[in-house]
Design goal:
RmlC_Cupin_sf, Jelly Rolls, mainly beta, RmlC-like_jellyroll, Cupin, ChrR-like_cupin_dom, 9-stranded antiparallel sheet
């Protein structure tokens, strides 16, 4: 299966407008944003857990990264409320569930397969640093290695700046609005731009809170499933 599989093109999706699709697990639905592969896939997805839903224990051979958009995500490692950022590296395993229900923005099979770094961060308790080169923008780092830089960015109302997309970039709008290339991106809009794209965004009248990943698109591959 291929959804938005041409990584040389700019892609914009308004995730709140995408129809929910049932997963193989009862009570868990998905809104696909991009996908290379079948049920095992390199994928970017918004996933909704109904209250009381649960997966069986499974291994993330290619790693899993997610941000909790609402509710509480749960597994044997703890309860992760809205605003939690989690990285489960390749070969890690867990039993995902949510008694109260939750919605997450999740990326699968997008790790260095040798990565073994776990990250479990409650961003509600995370500080932020003003960007010295972009007035009106503050940054909370989430993860960085040789392949990618993942962070939250907080944009003051009306500010406009470039975002480094030398190695490609993705933006998921968590709060507020931004504009890019003449298009308005509201809450839960997802933008992916290709390597070398000239990316400049402007925050709306109430500012914006953004999840941003950059530098990672030179490493796009579909999972090998044998």
């Amino acid at each position: 299966m291929k959804i938005n599989g041409d990584f040389s093109k700019r892609v914009l999706e308004f995730s709140d407008e995408i129809q929910w699709i049932e997963s193989p697990i009862k009570g868990v639905d998905r809104r696909p944003l991009d996908r290379l592969g079948g049920e095992v896939a390199r994928a970017t997805t918004v996933v909704r857990f109904a209250p009381g839903s649960q997966f069986s224990e499974h291994v993330h051979t290619g790693g899993e990264e997610f941000f909790v958009l609402d509710g509480v995500f749960q597994d044997e490692h703890g309860d992760f409320p809205r605003g939690s950022y989690i990285r489960n590296p390749p070969e890690s395993k867990h039993t995902p569930a949510s008694q109260p229900g939750c919605t997450i923005f999740v990326k699968l099979w997008q790790f260095d397969l040798q990565d073994r770094t776990h990250v479990r961060t409650d961003t509600n308790k995370l500080g932020r640093v003003n960007d010295a080169e972009r007035e009106g923008v503050a940054v909370s780092p989430l993860f960085q290695d040789e392949r990618e830089n993942v962070r939250l960015e907080y944009w003051q109302p009306g500010v406009s700046h470039a975002v480094n997309a030398k190695g490609g970039a993705e933006i998921f709008v968590l709060r507020g609005t931004i504009t890019e290339a003449g298009e308005n991106l509201p809450k839960h809009a997802w933008l992916r731009v290709p390597i070398g794209y000239d990316l400049t965004i402007k925050a709306g009248e109430k500012g914006a809170k953004l999840w941003i990943k950059s530098g990672h698109l030179p490493y796009v591959t579909a999972p090998f499933t044998g």
